[in-house]
Task: structure prediction
Amino acid sequence: MTKQYNVMFDVGFSIVANDERGETLRPSEIRFAIIERAMSMRDDEIREAVGFCDSYILEESNNE
Result:
């Protein structure tokens, strides 16, 4: 059986806020900025905007 991994990435995006740390941003504003960033990138730009964080091997399930 082939190993499968759960892989975690950070996604780079920016948003204009009224405070230095963005603490007053609403979750909906952050979500929109993430979606807008993802939709604006060409396929060849995606790797520049994400960074590997961690991964782990998924356990085999009984359904396979």
Notes: DSSP finds two helices and two strands in the chain. The chain has a mean pLDDT of 92. The first helix runs from residue 27 to 40.
